[in-house]
Automatic annotation (TrEMBL):
Top-tier EC class: translocase
Name under which the protein is recorded: Cd(2+)-exporting ATPase
An annotated Gene Ontology molecular function: ATP hydrolysis activity
InterPro entries: ATPase_P-typ_cyto_dom_N, ATPase_P-typ_P_site, ATPase_P-typ_TM_dom_sf, ATPase_P-typ_transduc_dom_A_sf, ATPase_P-type_domA, Cation_Transport_ATPase_IB, HAD-like_sf, HAD_sf
EC number: 7.2.2.21
Keyword Cell inner membrane: no
Source organism of the structure: Dorea phocaeensis
Gene designation: cadA
Compartments it resides in: Cell membrane; Membrane
SUPFAM superfamilies per UniProt: Calcium ATPase, transduction domain A, Calcium ATPase, transmembrane domain M, HAD-like
Reactions it catalyzes: Cd(2+)(in) + ATP + H2O = Cd(2+)(out) + ADP + phosphate + H(+)
Keyword Transmembrane carried by entry: yes
Entry similarity comment: Belongs to the cation transport ATPase (P-type) (TC 3.A.3) family. Type IB subfamily.
Membrane topology of this protein: Multi-pass membrane protein
Keyword annotations of the record: ATP-binding, Cadmium, Cell membrane, Membrane, Metal-binding, Nucleotide-binding, Translocase, Transmembrane, Transmembrane helix
Length: 620
């Protein structure tokens, strides 16, 4: 429970105590009207403290006609016609509903926090050979930190001393520990398993991986879905209409068919105001979306806003990157063809140049090379998005990448048409040969795409920067509807725009990827899904949904959670509108007294909140 909620609950409890005392005193003793007024006014002001505070905030935001306005007008009106006890009781029940809503919201947030409870508690900083325990937020760029076995890595850093294994499951779901050595980057939230290591801080705590991911989840509730925006727009129109109708109930009958009977009709008008309060819908819909976000987090899915859950239910086109998304991203060297040197020498050069990269293709080259890799021989490494990389090796310039890179450098080379990814290598401006690297389709990709095809009737598209020879066989095996290969980031964006132009207002395009090249389309798509929290930082930042464990079936889970969330939202809106319409009519003709009306309203509110909170417990 938050500190603010605790304070609000204590104030409410004091107000209830004052109200109970006032009721007991006025029942047992004959008390003057002025004394009753003071007793119940004190209880009213204390109980309604939270409501008055909220109304003041809304007025400062120039929001004058809200559910708080209706409730306060109705209860103040009850005091005006000397119905003190009922006025306080209405505020008591209303505020109880507000506190219950705050508890429900707090519970959903705690569910998210518990799932993402990977924030390190402390960091060990090393200064002049001495170690000091400090808060992770106190670390600065360039500081030296010590991470011992069993400790969480406090911030993103680069290893300077020691070799160990890192448990990255908290961020990626990957069960196999990753070995790290000096020069390799490590990420906050992961756990050091084997040995003491020292590292240099690369990012302050606020910018580190674990902090960014947690903040994205916490900010998600600020992104409103269409249903939430509908409720906000609906309230702006609904509230003044209800206020006018309540005034008509108060004024019209005493001036016409029930001439002069002002007390009765003013009282009924105030009851009408109480019943008209749209708090049930206003509260239950946002909680339902927050519940959906919390449920997704429990399944290893970070959703940045409720609007993306709603868009996901409307998705009819799914665009996938290939490498690392549809395929395992676990490559092996299939063929080496050197020009002007031995195959072993070409592999030695390639393995060294790629030694600073964690990309699966780079890893396959290092795995294939049996010799010892000396990173000091490599310098000036630079990634060329969409083309490959360049670096110096033993003082000589090396270019490695696609055929487009060779063409860009105007290097004459072979045209290789073989299944797999072809990495072309050049020393300076001289072609040195190629290496063919093969990948395998993810085992669960078939079932996920089959679900999208059969259950969602989705159009399946592959867009990749890889070659046609490496990509088309994968697309055919997965029965994709369209496959576009050899795409640059700008090409992907153009192709995405074409698909989005074909959509009508009720259809959405989803893009799934993990690399830097995917970031633009992930940001532009209606819903961008990044494969794994340890994918490209640009892709994670651009995406709307992040699959923490890098598993494609999580897309299916996300859709099911989104559908369940929207089902609950629809139920809450429909239930609230129907019940409210019935009670409004009955209240206008005098069937309800004020406290019965507020019980009916609070009942609708509680039912909606309980239904919404259930989404948090939803299991796919």
């Amino acid at each position: 429970m938050t500190k603010e909620l605790k304070i609000r609950s204590i104030i409410y409890g004091i107000g209830v105590l004052i109200y109970v005392c006032a009721v007991m005193v006025t029942r047992k003793h004959t008390v003057a009207d002025e004394v009753q007024f003071v007793w119940f006014l004190a209880a009213y002001l204390v109980i309604g403290f939270g409501a008055f505070q909220k109304l003041a905030e809304q007025i400062l935001q120039k929001k004058f006609l809200t559910e708080y306005t209706l409730m306060i007008l109705a209860t103040v009106g009850a005091f005006g016609i000397a119905r003190y006890r009922e006025g306080v009781l209405v505020m008591l029940l209303f505020e109880l509903g507000m506190i219950f809503e705050s508890f429900a919201t707090d519970s959903a947030k705690r569910s998210i926090t518990k799932m993402l409870n990977i924030r390190p508690e402390y960091a060990t900083r090393k200064v002049h050979g001495k170690e000091y325990q400090v808060a992770p937020s106190a670390l600065k760029l360039g500081n030296t930190i010590v991470i011992k076995p069993g400790e969480r890595i406090p911030v993103d850093a680069v290893v300077t001393e020691g070799t160990t294994s890192i448990d990255m499951k908290a961020l990626t779901g990957e069960s196999v520990p990753k070995s790290v050595q000096p020069g390799e980057k490590i990420y906050s939230g992961c756990i050091n398993l084997n040995a003491v290591i020292e590292a240099k801080v690369l990012a302050v705590y606020q910018d580190s991986t674990v902090s960014r991911i947690t903040e994205m989840v916490e900010r998600a509730q600020d992104e409103k879905a269409e249903s939430e925006n509908f409720i906000t727009r609906f309230s702006k129109i609904y509230t003044p209409i209800m206020l006018i109708l309540a005034l008509l109930v108060m004024i019209y009958p005493p001036l016409t068919f029930s001439y002069g009977n002002w007390d009765t009709w003013i009282y009924r008008g105030l009851i009408f105001l109480v019943v008209a309060c749209p708090s049930g819908m206003m509260i239950s819909v946002p909680i339902a979306f927050l519940g959906g976000i919390a449920s997704a987090a429990c399944h290893g899915i970070v959703v940045k806003g409720g609007n993306y859950l709603e868009d996901l239910t409307k998705a009819d086109t799914f665009i996938f990157d290939k490498t690392g998304t549809l395929t395992e991203g676990v490559f092996h060297v299939k063929e080496i063809k050197a020009v002007g040197m031995s195959n072993e020498e070409l592999l030695r050069i390639a393995a060294h140049v790629e030694s600073y990269s964690n990309h699966p293709i780079a890893q396959s080259l290092q795995d294939a090379y049996d010799g010892e890799i000396s990173q000091v021989k490599v310098g000036r490494m630079r990634e060329i998005p969409g083309y490959g990389i360049s670096a110096t090796f033993e003082g000589q310039k090396v270019y490695m990448g696609s055929k487009r890179l060779m063409e860009k450098r105007r290097i004459v080379c072979d045209t290789v048409s073989k299944p797999g990814t072809v990495v072309y290598v050049a020393l300076g401006d001289k072609y040195a040969g190629y290496i063919v690297i093969a990948d395998t389709i993810k085992e669960k990709a078939r079932t996920t795409l089959r679900y999208l095809k059969e259950k969602r009737e989705a159009v399946l598209v592959m867009m990749t920067g890889d070659t046609e020879n490496a990509s088309i066989p994968v697309a055919k095996e997965l029965k994709m509807d369209y496959a576009y290969t050899d795409l640059m980031p700008t090409d992907k964006m153009e192709q995405l725009e074409e698909f989005m132009e074909l959509q009508d207002g009720m259809e959405r395009v989803v893009c799934v990827g993990d690399g830097i090249n995917d970031a633009p389309v992930l940001a532009r798509a209606d819903v961008g899904i990044a494969m794994g929290a340890m994918g490209s930082a640009a892709a994670v930042e651009a995406a709307d949904i992040i699959l923490m464990d890098d598993e494609l079936p999580r897309i299916k889970d996300a859709i099911k959670i989104a559908k369940e969330t929207l089902r609950v939202v629809t139920q809450n809106i429909t239930f609230a509108l129907v019940i409210k319409a019935v009670i409004l009519v009955l209240a206008a003709i005098g069937y309800f007294i004020m406290w019965e009306a507020i019980i009916a309203e609070v009942g609708v509110m509680f039912a909606g909140i309980l239904n919404a909170v259930w989404v948090v417990r939803y299991r796919v």
